[in-house]
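User: quick one, sequence for these tokens?
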């Protein structure tokens, strides 16, 4: 059955929920699934705003057909973003709706040719251009790097729906609530943070530029390509992305540690004990068990970061090495960082973690602890002191 969900006058959700893909981008776990949101505006001319992953084409076309009045077809596909989770079905959509005009900016059209060999019946739009559908008036706003260079947003100035592409999106499927006033927001905002940090975070500076642009627009609904549609509190979607892209962080410490035989873990426990006793919110991740998707999200959430790692083959334990390279790629900033490690015969891990904080200009919280073997009682005390200093650094006057 295709029950059509309505966002505004003549405006319908024709997206799909994906519970089959285990790893988004073949990297990031999807325990709550993901939605590919697409929208249909039915006017004198009909516009489809974004599409879905190719695998879900049949369901997508059934939903479009259910929303289309008899005798109507889809005239335009507005491509806010070219990534294949929104365009994978494009060639077959063209066959299903002959005469479909593909609408995008110059970079979109370059990618259309590169990905799908499509260069006919395309309409190039520029920043601020308007497409009239009849009563509905679509205005295009280029927002590069949210999440690719061609990304744009489409504002229906008639209804005030802002089709925002990946921006303001999140993981999590929406069959239990498409709209912010019906969804489990605690869960969905957690999945939104994970989406932001996993997918968008590298481009945080460009997110800030995009948000400046969005703040000058008048809208009453935010409709992204993934996750919840914000009709009750659209400002919240924008303010969450604003907060995350500023990387200011909440009071709290994320602990990311590796330990082979338990020696580094015992040092971590001393530091964590001190944090807990000071009332600091703490998220602890053993990197051999926690997927980086969750670790990075918690690191983004908190002001403080405690890195702990044994030396492995004269350098970092591989899981820590992977995490630090990922954080460098995401251009992490504004963190208060504590470092501790252990070694058997040669150090290396602590030096590498120091290099990481130097490279990203993060604030190092002393003392740095490096224990030989199982460590001494004095090492344990230094870990407690590190925990206390981290608490001071992240809690401020709270
Ligand atoms: Fe949802 Fe960047 O694609």
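Assistant:
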């Amino acid at each position: 059955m295709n029950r059509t969900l309505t966002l505004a006058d003549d405006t319908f959700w024709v997206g799909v929920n994906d519970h089959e893909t285990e790893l988004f981008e073949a990297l990031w776990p999807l325990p709550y699934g993901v939605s590919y949101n697409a929208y249909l505006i039915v006017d004198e001319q009909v516009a489809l705003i974004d599409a879905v992953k190719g695998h879900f084409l049949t369901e997508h076309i059934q939903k479009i057909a259910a929303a289309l009045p008899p005798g109507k077809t889809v005239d335009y596909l507005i491509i806010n973003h070219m990534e294949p989770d929104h365009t994978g079905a494009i060639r077959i959509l063209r066959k299903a709706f002959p005469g479909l005009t593909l609408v995008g900016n110059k970079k979109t059209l370059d990618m259309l040719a590169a990905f799908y060999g499509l260069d006919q019946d395309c309409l190039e739009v520029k920043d601020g251009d308007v497409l009239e559908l009849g009563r509905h008036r679509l205005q295009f706003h280029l927002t590069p790097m949210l999440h690719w260079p061609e990304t744009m947003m489409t504002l229906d100035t008639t209804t005030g729906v802002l089709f925002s592409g990946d921006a303001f999106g999140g993981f999590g499927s929406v069959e239990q609530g498409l709209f912010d006033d019906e969804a489990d927001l605690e869960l969905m905002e957690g999945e939104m943070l994970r989406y932001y940090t996993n997918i968008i975070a590298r481009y945080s500076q460009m997110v800030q530029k995009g948000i400046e642009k969005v703040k000058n627009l008048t809208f009453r609904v935010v409709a992204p390509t993934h996750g919840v549609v914000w009709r009750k509190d659209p400002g919240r979607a924008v303010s969450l992305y604003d907060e995350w892209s500023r990387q200011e962080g909440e009071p709290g410490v994320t602990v990311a540690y590796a330990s082979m035989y338990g020696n580094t873990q015992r040092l971590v426990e001393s530091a964590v004990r001190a944090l807990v006793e000071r009332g600091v919110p703490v998220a602890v991740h053993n990197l051999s068990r926690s997927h980086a998707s969750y670790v990075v999200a918690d690191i983004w959430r908190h002001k403080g970061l405690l890195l702990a790692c044994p030396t492995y083959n004269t350098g970092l334990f591989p899981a820590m090495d992977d995490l630090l390279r990922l954080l460098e790629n995401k251009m992490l900033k504004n963190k208060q960082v504590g470092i501790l490690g252990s070694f058997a015969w040669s150090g290396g891990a602590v030096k590498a973690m120091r290099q990481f904080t130097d490279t990203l200009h993060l604030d190092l919280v002393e003392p740095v602890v490096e224990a030989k073997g199982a460590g001494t009682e004095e090492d344990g005390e230094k870990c407690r002191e590190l925990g206390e200093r981290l608490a001071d650094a992240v809690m401020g006057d709270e």
